[in-house]
Amino acid sequence: MYRKGFFIVFEGIDGSGKSTQIELLTMKLKHAGIDAINEQEPTNNIIGKLIRDYAEAGDRYLSPEVEALLFSADRIEHSKRILSYLQQGITVICDRFYHSTYAYQGASGVDIDWLKSLQKNVIKPDLVILLDIDPDSSLIRVSGRNLTIFENNSYLRKVREIYNELAKNGDLVKINTLKPILEVEKDVQNLIEKLINIKLF
User: How far is CA 82 from CA 6, 29, 96, 183, in A?
Assistant: First the structure.
């Protein structure tokens, strides 16, 4: 019987299809009798809300180092909640985790090793899936909503480069999301089936 809760993270720039694939995967897991819950970062806790307000304000007035500290503080608190779910046998599917800090603040020139040192007290995912898309396509996909301070083409190109380097190092498993949604869903499903050793339909 399935008992262990798994921690699965989706990474990628906005417009890569994270929300869609998380929703599809959650439905498949629940259909297979697996208790699953969705999480996201920044969270809806006090620090997470502060970060969201800042990101939507349109003025990047904080240094990237301070951004990284805020994201990491939010994540330390978030890890406690995630661990609680996992201990109950609930699988957690999270939209972003610490690789986002490496990619986004790293793209601003912050030392990656220092960023990694901030994550010592956070839980480690069982699987991190990178949904890869070029910034031109991603910005077209999100053009109908207000953009955050982190969403501009030249910056996102640097973010994507770091994500891809992390994937080369084996930290993430990359999936091309310019393919049809159902093909991306199948690629995700294959990874999950290997992780949890159960067939999804």
Answer: 10, 17, 13, 29
Q: Could you tell me the pTM of the whole model?
A: 0.94
What proportion of the chain, given as a percentage, has pLDDT over 90?
Answer: 83
What tokens appear for 192 in the block? 């999950």
User: pLDDT band at residue 139, thresholds of 50, 70 and 90?
Assistant: confident
List C-alpha distances in Å: 112 to 87, 120, 166, 179: 31, 13, 11, 31
How is residue 84 written in tokens? 């609680």
Mention every residue, 6+ apart, whose C-beta is less than 8 A from residue 74: 41, 42, 43, 45, 47, 48, 51
Q: Give me the domains of the chain, ranges plus CATH numbers.
A: 7-196 (3.40.50.300)
Which residues are CB-neighbours of 64 under 8 A, at least 6 positions away?
105, 108, 109, 110
